[in-house]
Amino acid sequence: MAKLELWYTEDQTENQRFSCRVTRTLHSEQTPFQKLDVFETAQWGRMLTLDGLVMTTDRDEFVYHEMITHVPLCTHPNPEYVAVIGGGDGGAIREILKHPGVKKATLIEIDERVIEASRRFFPAISSGLSDPRVEIRVEDGINHVAEVKGRYDVIIVDSTDPIGPAVGLFAKEFYQNVFAALREDGLFVAQTESPFYHADLIRNTFATVSGIFPVTRLYLATIPTYPSGLWSFTVGSKKYDPAVVNPDRKLPFATRYYTPELHRGAFALPQFVAELIKK
Ligand code: SPD
């Protein structure tokens, strides 16, 4: 008897694919910037993809969103003004708002349809977007950081992969503008892909950021639905070292992945990753 099955398949490299069973396609559209799909999957709950690449899923989003936010926000002693470039699903914003000292979280997302899709299909991820401390700007983050000076304590570059609209978010000029957009003791973090598949990108980004910021660090997290499952984040900081954290610090909010002890451990790099960022 014939059996019909629906699977999502992502070409992670020319020689590597990732698949998961789809129980329903909830939404598909071509936005002015990219192809946006929302699937219901058997393994990961709802999944948002852009241009055929997984951006977030119900069941593992907490790892990425906690690690891209709490590492920089727990490094800065008093983060008040925080910006997220990209991240239209709102997951990073939700985590930022857990920090009681944050006065304003600005989301700068180029594609309004991502925000709309997240509000509609991912209520738990987008839950912070209506908070009064949140300002949403639908514009290109590249232009925004080029225009503002000394405004933010922390900038989080929650970009898509370095293709299409996100290419400029991995460029030297962008990091220079991020430096200028930060206050005198500010820091930024960018998602920088997988050390298994994007070694050159990590090497080049780290070298570029090191040429601009006095402190540059790389840390890792395990994100099962991202290519290879091992994901990197690069930090550029004007003053504070994100690798130095009190592991016994008590957090005034709940997390599922991030702990201060794990924060410290995330900077302990496997040898092949450490080699990538050697001077
Ligand atoms: N290959 C996946 C990289 C996606 C990084 N950004 C995801 C956005 C989630 N807020």
Features of the shown structure:
2 domains; 5-stranded antiparallel sheet; 26% helix; Rossmann fold; 7-stranded mixed sheet; binds spermidine; alpha/beta; Spermidine Synthase, Chain: A, domain 2; 12 strands; 279 residues
How does this structure look, described?
By secondary structure, the protein is an alpha/beta fold. It has two domains: 52 residues, Spermidine synthase, tetramerisation domain (Spermidine Synthase, Chain: A, domain 2), CATH 2.30.140.10; 216 residues, Rossmann fold. It has eight helices and twelve strands. The radius of gyration is 18 Å and the shape is globular. The N and C termini lie far apart (60 Å). The mean pLDDT is 97. Bound molecules: spermidine. The site of spermidine has 15 residues, from strand 5 and helix 2.
Query: Which CATH architecture of the largest domain would you pick?
Result: 3-Layer(aba) Sandwich
Q: Largest sheet, order of strands side by side?
A: 8-7-6-9-10-12-11
- Give a quick account of the main beta sheet: strands, pairing sense, barrel closure: 7 strands, mixed
The structure class reads alpha/beta
* Helix segment tally: 8
Quaternary state of this entry equals single chain
* Ligand types: spermidine
Shape: globular
User: What sequence of helices (H) and strands (E) makes up the elements?
Assistant: EEEEEHEHEHEHEHEHEEHH
The overall pLDDT, averaged over residues, is 97
What integer value in Å does the Rg equal? Answer: 18 Å
Distance between the termini: 60 Å
User: What is the CATH first-level class name of the largest domain?
Assistant: Alpha Beta
* Poorly predicted ranges: none
Strand residue percentage: 25-35%
* Fraction in helix: 25-40%
Structurally, the number of domains stands at: 2
Any idea what the CATH superfamily of the largest domain is called?
Vaccinia Virus protein VP39
In the CATH hierarchy, the third-tier topology of the largest domain is known as Rossmann fold
